[in-house]
Amino acid sequence: MDIKSIILAAGKGTRMKSQTPKVLHEIYGKTLLGYVLDSVKNITCENFVIVGHHAEEVEQYVNKNYENVKTVLQSPQLGTGHAVSMACPYLNNYEGLVLILCGDTPLIQEETLRKFVDFHKANNCDITVMSTIFDNPANYGRIIREADNTLKCIVEEKDATTEQKAVKEVNAGIYCLNWGKIKLAFSQLTSNNAQGEYYLTDIIEWGKKNSLNVNAYILENNEEIFGINSRMNLAEATKIMTRQVLTKHMVNGVTIVDPDSTWISPDTEIGQDSIIYPSTYIEGKNKIGKNCKIGPCAHLRGGVEVCDNVKIGNFVEVKKSIIKSDTNVGHLSYIGDSELGSNVNIGAGTITANYNAITKVKSKTLIKDNVKIGSNSVLVAPVTIEEGANTGAGTIVTENIPAWSLVLTRSPLKIFTDWVKNKLK
Ligand code: UD1
Ligand code: CA
Questions:
Q1: In the chain, how many domains are there?
Q2: What is the CATH number of the domain that holds 51?
Q3: What is the distance in A from the centroid of ligand 1 to the CA of 102?
Q4: Helix (H) or strand (E) holding 33
Q5: Final residue in a domain of this structure, among 161, 194, 225
Q6: Position in ligand 1 atom list of the atom nearest CA 170
């Protein structure tokens, strides 16, 4: 599609009280900015992230994780309108649509942005601003309408009259612009307001003055534009996101025994008839098959692919691993950087020792089909356990094990008859 996006992420985020830039704070191991970039990535052909505060860190994050995204420095940060103008040199010859979003609204959905753009096109708008209704509109810019209900302007809380403050329709901070018609505005904004900033919101009045078609798209679900300004907001956004994710899975035929104590990242797929038991925490990107049983108290840390009929029981941590069908990891285990075949049984307390703390190298553990690992085994990676092999309880495996063999590292059991009785005498 001929749409580009500009994502504003240069602001300070003072209220987070953090050494980490606000947009790099995470929910389920993904940054706030990452959620916003993911919401546009299937809609846009090119994206600009405006960076300023902690610019280098944000730049590094973007370059490492996203293609088709350019970072543009805004220094000093003179307001949201000024922020957008930083991208103007890159869009001189562009005449298509530009979506503008803020980097601190991680709940926005791709589907909503698509509807927003469709609305913009269907109504031949030049400028469309997304709005929503809040019972408590504090801190947001208010949408001010004319007597005939058309859009008049947006007034920031700090510039608003008492009457304007009572308005419950607010600016979501998301805009769709016909760039060719609006780009001139960014060299004409002024900073004549309470905060002495160049407000992006002033493009509404500019558009009207220049006879453009200016509209608002009212978003029904106001949760989606919930912005993060504090740690309290961050926790609340995590709750909202979690509830949406759990509901989606339950609608799709997954049993969530206790939604109040279950945490699942939005990038986790789960097959039908799987059961997720209480106090389970699943972050990052994962794929869980059908008829699996996960938890209680399981921890999946991302990069986990689980096939059908797999059991991951209590106090089991799994990271970056593939587990094939009909395999059990029942209790108290750590499985990291591993591949487990089908019909494998992992005894309680098994650890894949994937990390060499001296060399800082992580290595893989390969466990083929039908292997049985005895309780309390340590598999020191890199290591391969070939098909059907068994390890006895307490075995420390430091070399590859051939198929269908038994391996033990155990000093012989010694029994001292009546030893205790004699001591007590
Ligand atoms: C802004 C809107 C407000 C809207 C609200 C929605 C303006 C003037 N106000 O207010 O109408 O209701 O968002 O959440 O636009 N930023 C920069 N450079 C700057 C200033 C800000 O990149 O110089 C970025 C921030 O990092 C942030 C976004 O722009 O991601 C919004 O800035 P913020 O200061 O949070 O604006 P609000 O006061 O929330
Ligand atoms: Ca904000």
A1: 2
A2: 3.90.550.10
A3: 7
A4: helix 32-40
A5: 225
A6: 12
